[in-house]
Amino acid sequence: MAESPSRKLARLIRQLDAFLAAGGQLGVYSDEQARDAIAAALRGEGGLGVAVDGAGDTLTIRIGDAAALRLTLGLGTAALLAGATAAEFHAGTASRALTTTAVWDAAAPVALIDQATIAVDLGAMINGVVTLGGNRTLRNPSRAKPGQSGFIELVQDATGGRQLAFGSAWRNTATVTLSSAAGARDCLYFVVKATDRIEVTGLTRAIG
């Protein structure tokens, strides 16, 4: 006949009382016992090597097989990825892990070089800023990635009245009219539809 739960509980309580009455202790281990128990548990995990120093009561743990350890811990290849820098995020470098710091650093506006035809390298920036020293043309972007979006802040120099033209890849540019006051700041927004099709999605004038 199976033992009922109440009888089993009563029996276990009697056994525990007898154990404690005989001087037994629960959950008390020497340093050596704790060390050896931890070492035994770690040795059972794939990819780890464990050495015990009996004199110093220390454990030395080495990763012997990274692939086996990732499997044991339930991790994929992401466990070995290096963190991406802002430049690597811009360039779309493969096999990198993103951190919030890298993402926000990458979003900081990159200074573009003011020249007659302004180069826009979307593999080196998300957002940009340039002060116009004359009438300028925005060159067709290089290294554009479909789905990428951003803005370019356009600043009038101390003279003002500078105008902006666009390369053939830029679309919806007919209504782009910059502020003319000296030092005025406008913000041009865009999205990449294809490597040869950059849609202007808006212009905020005189942003201050």
UniProtKB/TrEMBL annotation:
It comes from the Bacteria. This is Uncharacterized protein.
